[in-house]
Amino acid sequence: MQPVVQAVLRSWSIPPVATFALVLTALTYLRGTWLLRRAGYPYLPAWRIASFALGLLALWFALASPLDTFAPFVLTAHMLQHMTLMMVAPPLILLGSPLIPIVRGMPRFAAREFAGPFLNWSVAERLGLAITNPVIALVLMGIVMFAWHVPGPYELALRSSTWHQVEHACFFFTSIIFWWPVVQPWPSCARWPRWAMVPYLVIADLQNTVLSAVLVFSDKVLYPSYLAGPSVFGFTPQGDQAAAGAIMWVVGSLAFLVPAILIAIQCLSRRRPWTSAPSSRRARTSTLLPEAKGRFVNRSNSRAFEAISFVSLFLVIAVTFIFLSSRASDDDDQVLRLSRQEGPFVISIYGPSGELSSGPASFGILLQDRSSHEVLLESDVDLLLRDPANENQPPAPVRASRGDENKLLFAAEVDLDAPGTRTLDITVRNANRNATLSMPLEVSTTAEPGFGFRWSYVVVLMIATALGLIYFSRHRTGNSASLTAPIT
């Protein structure tokens, strides 16, 4: 296997927060299925559980694999990531009928005080029926697909990791809404007859075809980031865009038309439509949670003990979430700052987007052969930061090492010690060839110190406040309806 291919396959960017959330979701789902089976409701066959697990795995793969690492470099990788988020993970997750198992897998206090009342809330029910209406779902899916592929929003997502995550969330959650009428996960009820899902999927395929045709047949590169960036895998920017459109065309058509054909066959053969409804077989016991014995029964059934257990678990999850968010990498915020042919090389420099502030700053260097555009991995790269106004002070060079996530880049951190004009010299050596590229930097003052929260603190505080308000509001009005089980 070629060294470049090996480097690509090793370029994983595992997101700690998303990984933690997906693992927690999987454990909650599995606990819920175990409790339902133990209570006598074994309505989830093994293949549905496996489908849910594969859906979460596909979602994690889209966010952690080299597809995410090379999304800013190769449009084809970015398109494969989008297809996984929209065409693979959502239907697999919905086939697992996740709603009731996840609610049952929650702590009893959370299910009774929050999840159960929310599911029984008339406003939430009306909102759910509205957004899963096939017309609304189809229009929403089309708007999100076309809006995020407009050059402006697309470039914004490439330049900012935060907006990139917002883009992914839009794709995933609108796809969940789109696939809901097709899969119809239990306990939801179909709004339209089953045969109507055939034109529903065909229209979605037409939307996908129009967008993919724009990418394939466009006579110009639509996204400047890929036009200015280097050719990493031998694609020209125009060829990369055409390949991405072809992937969107083929994968999208298969994802839409294969279920449409299966549903049409089932309707024509007068068989029971493909549905996610579980078996209605009742169990001998009506208990949904395992019973305890001895003195622990009274303690575990007391509301005070349940509340304390829930608060303790919430604090543990919140602390873990805050810790993992502080460990998250910000490599997605690096943008191409300069790409130039220098000697026998093409040297591309990636760094923080926007204005540079004094303090540590990370830079990534991609080194390619000038004639073949082959990525040169066996090279030495040194970074040297100079102050043109103080040439008497000899600077110390910094040796770049292979990047933690993107193994095709050489990464190094330099200290922008003070505001003003600086010059960054990049010296590269490969075999008996060498070259030096100089890039001017304008360093601004550091932001004024002040009291502020990390985004993870704000999220935890907002969730805790919302849960507290819901709890005290319900108990103040005396409306403490317990969780009802929609299992018949």
Question: Could you explain the architecture of this structure?
Answer:
The chain has 488 residues and is an alpha+beta fold. The chain has two domains: 15-279, no CATH class; 331-444, Macroglobulin (MG2) domain (Immunoglobulin-like, Sandwich), CATH 2.60.40. 53% of the residues lie in helices and 15% in strands. It has 17 helices and ten strands. The strands form two sheets. The chain has a five-stranded antiparallel sheet, with no helix packed on it. It has a five-stranded mixed sheet with strand order 3-10-9-5-6, with no helix packed on it. The longest helix has 32 residues, at 237-268. It is globular.
Number of helices: 17
Structural class of the secondary structure composition?
alpha+beta
Assign a percent range to the helix content: 40-55%
Overall 3D shape: globular
Give start-end ranges of low-pLDDT stretches: 273-300, 448-453, 480-488
Q: How do the SSEs run, as a string of H and E?
A: HHHHHHHHHHHHHHHHEEEEEEEEEEH
**Major sheet: size, sense and barrel closure?**
5 strands, antiparallel
What is the gist of this entry?
With 488 residues, this protein is α+β, with helices and mostly antiparallel strands. The protein has 17 helices and 10 strands.
